[in-house]
Design brief:
The protein is mainly β. Helix content is 6%, strand content 42%. The strands form three sheets. The protein has a six-stranded mixed β-sheet with strand order 11-10-9-8-13-12, with no helix packed on it. A five-stranded antiparallel β-sheet has the order 5-6-2-1-7. The longest helix is centred in the middle third of the chain and has 6 residues. It is elongated.
Length: 166
């Protein structure tokens, strides 16, 4: 597990006074400000966050050290990370996506299928993207108890029960 978890991303500038368009990945989008300071992936920069409004597809926010539109535009595409210790404790059977990425995926017989490359959600529930040696394309599996009966973060593995159609 990493000490920081991605909680949002800067998707562009908002206005002319250095505000950013912010996409929040937290359960309550406005809750992202409560996890500040937020860090860049490399940890070289950190930001205090003041939310200034709700806009289509996200939030507008003021970040410390960002005072011009050019400063805000330069941060477009930057992912923002919070210290794990500031995040809420999870219920049983809940996982941070960051903890699933990189886990080894095995079928019920113990055969290694690959590794989790990503966790996607397009509105109908989480889908894990699995890629492994010999695969020409990723295997997309619904992240449900029926398909993924075992999640062993400490052991670095997921056990999947592949649906018959796969």
């Amino acid at each position: 597990m990493t000490d920081r978890v991605c909680v949002g991303a800067i998707v562009g500038a908002f206005g002319v006074k250095g505000e950013v368009r912010l996409k929040s990945f937290t359960a309550d989008p406005a809750g992202i400000a409560g996890y500040a300071p937020l860090f860049t992936e490399d940890g070289k920069r950190s930001f205090a966050v003041t939310l200034t409004g709700v806009i289509p597809n996200g939030l507008s926010a003021r970040l410390s050290g960002v005072s011009t539109r050019d400063d805000a535009e330069a941060l477009k595409g930057t992912q923002l990370f919070a210290d794990r210790a500031k995040l809420p404790a999870l219920e049983d059977d809940e996982f941070y996506h960051a903890d699933l990425i990189g886990l080894t995926v095995l079928d019920a017989g113990g055969t290694v299928l690959g590794q989790v490359q990503g966790v996607l959600n397009h509105g109908a529930g989480d889908v894990i993207e699995v890629f492994g040696t010999g695969m020409k394309q990723s295997l997309m599996l619904p992240f449900t108890r029926a398909v993924v009966p075992t999640v062993d973060i400490a052991g670095g593995r997921l056990v999947v029960d592949l649906p018959e159609e796969i």
